[in-house]
Amino acid sequence: MLIAYFSLSGNTRLIARDIQRMTGGELFEIRPVRRYGPDFDTAVEQARQELREQARPKLKETISDMSRYDVVFVGFPNWVGTMPMPVFSFLEQHDFREKTIVPFCTHGTSGPANTINDLKALPLHATVRDALSVYRNDVRDAEGRVRAWLKDLGYLKED
Ligand SMILES: Cc1cc2nc3c(=O)[nH]c(=O)nc-3n(C[C@H](O)[C@H](O)[C@H](O)COP(=O)(O)O)c2cc1C
Fold first, then answer.
1. Helix 11-23 vs helix 143-153: crossing angle, to nearest 10
2. To the nearest whole number, what is the mean pLDDT of the chain?
3. How many CA atoms lie within 13 A of 59 on its CB side?
4. All domains of the chain in start order, with CATH
5. Whose C-alpha lies nearest to ligand 1, atom 11?
6. Which atom of ligand 1 is nearest to the CA of 9?
7. Are 118 and 129 in contact (CB under 8 A)?
8. Ligand 1 contacts CB of residue 37 (under 6 A)
């Protein structure tokens, strides 16, 4: 299993680490070359512009051998209603045919919005399982929810 995630302020990373501990999968951080910020308003402006342009920001690293993984967790924050554009870059730069994608999302007051539907609309030819969405103020107390979700999906490592 692979747990690929994008996180600017650390919330999605916390969930990714919970998943890593509970499944034993490998972690991969989706890191764009260009930085967002330094402050929130600048990041929102950058995100809006990238969404308008349907940008596919260049990533620092990609996965060299995706065939090693059958199940790929893909985690991201809600950015202006959809996934951050670097997550689109990641999804489009790898071959997900015959794989299972398990999305997870952190968000503010607007919830996961279109994130999951936009992921499902990409022509990835993968099976997409039920997503977990966590409000940003709840990420530190989300272990129980993460565990229950993984157990339902059948990915919880026996401990
Ligand atoms: C550029 C940007 C855009 C955002 N847009 C939204 C949004 O449209 N709706 C929402 O509920 N939260 C929005 N947020 C809040 C994030 O989804 C939330 O804080 C998330 O947990 C951040 O995850 P991270 O710490 O892994 O980066 C936005 C945050 C940023 C930085």
1. 50
2. 97
3. 23
4. 2-153 (3.40.50.360)
5. 108
6. 25
7. no
8. no
pLDDT tens figures, 9-46 = 999 999 999 999 999 999 999 999 999 999 999 999 99
Q: Is the CB of 109 under 6 A from ligand 1?
A: yes
CA 159 to centroid of ligand 1, rounded, Å: 33
The residue ranges of DSSP E strands in the chain, in sequence order, are 2-5, 26-29, 71-77, 100-107, 127-128, 132-135
pLDDT above 70 (res 49)? yes
Q: Give the residue from 140, 157, 148 showing the smallest Cα distance to 12.
A: 140
The finding on whether 107 has its CB within 6 A of some atom of ligand 1 is yes
- Ligand 1 atom 10: residue of nearest CA: 108
Residue 108 CA, ligand 1 centroid: distance in Å: 6
Q: What percent of the chain has pLDDT over 70?
A: 99
Residues 108-144 have pLDDT tens digits of: 999 999 999 999 999 999 999 999 999 999 999 999 9
Going from the Cα of 149 to the center of ligand 1, the distance in angstroms, rounded, reads 22
